[in-house]
Design brief:
By secondary structure, the chain is mainly beta. The chain has a single domain, classed as PLAT/LH2 domain (Lipoxygenase-1), CATH 2.60.60. The protein is built from one helix and 14 strands.
């Protein structure tokens, strides 16, 4: 089953703090996000501080919220750039027929690596080749939209990428310009704008 949850927007201002991402398992189980620096959370100076650069990346969890507004949804292809490569973010069985993964007002969850729920999981796996926390420091993190179909543009409200979630070396990426609840804290990606949104640790 896929992981798309339609919830009211509860995105708070998160200036200067780590964010515990809203998460769900590949069976659609949803856990509410929280704000504030978690006890024992990584330093938020801007670089991932893993205990060891050679520590492997076994799982990547992605949470993306589409704005609840006309024409906000998209059927375009979306890629996550992380640790020196790209991953296709697409579920193996999109819900609601051909409605696609990025529906208006929905939060969509993806898992890569362990407990994967994406299409072509074997070639969208951070363990093939094996990526490490050192790669996070050496390469940028971003989302890239490849416009496609009749509704190519996408209005994104929030994005959280968590590397090795629920472990001491957990590393979280967001974009601080999306922190907030008004119209100035969202971004269009697509044919009439830029296609890339960069993410930063913390």
């Amino acid at each position: 089953m896929t992981s798309i949850v339609k919830l009211p927007s509860r995105k708070p201002a998160r200036a200067g703090s780590d964010t515990a991402a809203a998460t769900a398992t590949s069976t659609g189980e949803e856990a509410a996000g929280s704000t504030g620096a978690a006890k024992g959370a990584p330093d938020t100076s801007g670089r991932p501080l893993a205990a060891d650069r050679d520590e492997p990346i076994d799982r990547i969890r992605v949470a993306l919220r589409t704005v609840d507004a006309p024409n906000a949804d998209t059927r375009s292809r979306l890629y996550l750039g992380l640790a020196g490569r790209e991953f296709r973010l697409q579920h193996s069985d999109p819900p609601d027929g051909d409605a696609g993964d990025f529906q208006r007002g929905a939060t969509t969850f993806f898992n890569l690596g362990e407990d994967a729920d994406v299409q072509d999981a074997d070639v969208n796996d951070p363990r093939r080749p094996q990526l490490t926390h050192g790669d996070l420091e050496d390469f940028p993190a971003y989302l890239r939209l490849e416009p496609d179909g009749d509704e190519p543009d996408w209005l994104l409200e929030d994005a959280t990428v968590t590397v090795n979630p629920d472990r001491p070396s957990q590393t979280v990426y967001t974009n601080p310009r999306l922190y907030g609840t008004d119209d100035d804290h969202r971004i269009w990606l697509g044919t009439r704008q830029g296609r890339v949104l960069h993410l930063k640790h913390g």
